[in-house]
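Thread: Newbie trying to understand structure tokens

Hi all, I'm a second-year student working on a class project, and my supervisor (Dr. K.) asked me to get a predicted structure for one chain before our next meeting. I've only ever worked with sequences, so writing a 3D structure as a token string is new to me. If someone could post the tokens and maybe explain what I'm looking at, I'd be very grateful. Here's the chain:
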Amino acid sequence: MTVPSLMQNYQKQSYVTQLHKAYNLCSQAALQVLTDRNALSLKEAGITSLDEIDVFVKSYFKIVQDCGKTGTSCFAVGEYKKIDGTKVALFETELFKYYVLADGMSIAFYPSSYGLQINMDINGKKGPNIIGRDTFAFVIYNNGVVDDYVAGNIVPPFTKEQREEAYTKMCISAETTSWFGCLGKIINDGWQMTY
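---
Reply by user tm_fold:
Sure, no problem. This is what the structure looks like when written as tokens:
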């Protein structure tokens, strides 16, 4: 292997390690809130609004910065793009609550009918700010399972085929501004970034 390819492999593995850490944090927080509130779902636990998300996040995550409903101080707003270079407007909506975690990850939460949508930049405002590299979207579903988003009213965990389809249709497709699908591909490939 050449030095550049070694460096690239190291960087990819570093991103995956941080993503796996974030995945585990979200999974543990979901299971803990369900246990603490003696609930079978996030809805039953009452996490259905931005105010409840704020209580949830501040109770189960180590927060160093609360950016409220404005992503500009937590994320590199205006600097995000897909793997193919297509620019994407991220973190520019007031539908989310934005935070920076103690380890430097920037995270945004949105309550949806299927659970909590999570948008995350695993290294905060630092580059490369590319979806599928250091920036990901996924969901803590109402049943407490953390997984990628798959279109339709489907409850996770998802099949390898469903995740691959989401990867192809959303993560790497220049035809959509959706940016789900990257986490599912990494899970399918045994927590490796093969793309």
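A couple of things are worth pointing out once you decode it. The helical segments are 3-36, 50-60, 160-171, 182-188. Strands lie at 63-68, 97-101, 106-112, 115-121, 135-141, 146-147. Feel free to ask follow-ups in this thread.
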